[in-house]
Write a structure and sequence with these properties.
This protein has 152 residues and is mostly helical. Helix content is 53%, strand content 5%. It starts with a helix and ends in a 14-residue tail after the last helix. It is built from six helices and two strands, in the order H-H-H-E-E-H-H-H. A two-stranded antiparallel ribbon has the order 1-2. Helix 1 (2-11) packs parallel to helix 3 (32-48), helix 4 (66-87) packs across helix 5 and helix 5 (96-115) runs parallel beside helix 6 (131-138). The protein is globular. It has helices at 2-11, 16-19, 32-48, 66-87, 96-115, 131-138, and strands at residues 56-59, 62-65. The chain folds into two domains: 1-60, no CATH class; 66-152, no CATH class.
Length: 152
């Protein structure tokens, strides 16, 4: 949810320094679900603005096209949704088209992310693994992980 709050100012052209500490502190408030939904809607609206994907986004590691940032955000959401589902003992079935699009994007970036230490090594899977299992394994997650922790 916090990541979504960064989208609007970054797509608008602000630098991380210009955003400063505006997004520090409690971003969830008394109604975390509503806060997360609102942040997601604002992020989507920022990416949907006319010409937004052609802009430059100033990230901590350098400037990139906003379209690339949108792909990063999509992958982040898919993988972290799986993380949350697995950690809470739930299953998550992401739409096949979304998994396929994310996997295509990830093929180009996987080694760079891994080389930067942003993701763990790929988890080995049987040839029968589903596309979703293959994707989370490519992000260094074990799709067979079942250890459940209390979610606070």
């Amino acid at each position: 949810m916090g990541e979504d709050r960064w989208v609007e100012p970054l797509v608008a052209g602000k630098t991380i320094a210009e955003v400063g500490d505006a997004l520090d502190g409690d971003l969830l408030g008394a109604d975390p679900k509503a806060a997360a939904e609102a942040a997601g809607k604002v992020a989507l609206a920022a990416f949907a603005e006319r010409g937004a994907l052609a802009r430059t986004v100033h990230l901590s590691f350098g400037d990139i096209p906003a379209e690339e940032y949108a792909w990063q955000m999509m992958a982040d959401h898919v993988v972290h949704a799986w993380d949350l589902a697995a950690a809470s003992g739930n299953e998550l079935a992401v739409e096949d088209e979304l998994i396929a699009a994310c996997a295509i994007w990830w093929r180009e970036w996987e080694e760079a992310y891994r080389g930067a230490g942003a993701v763990a090594d790929r988890v080995a899977l049987p040839a029968t693994a589903s596309p979703q299992e293959q994707l989370v394994a490519a992000f260094g997650r074990d799709p067979g992980w079942t250890e459940v922790h209390d979610v606070v």
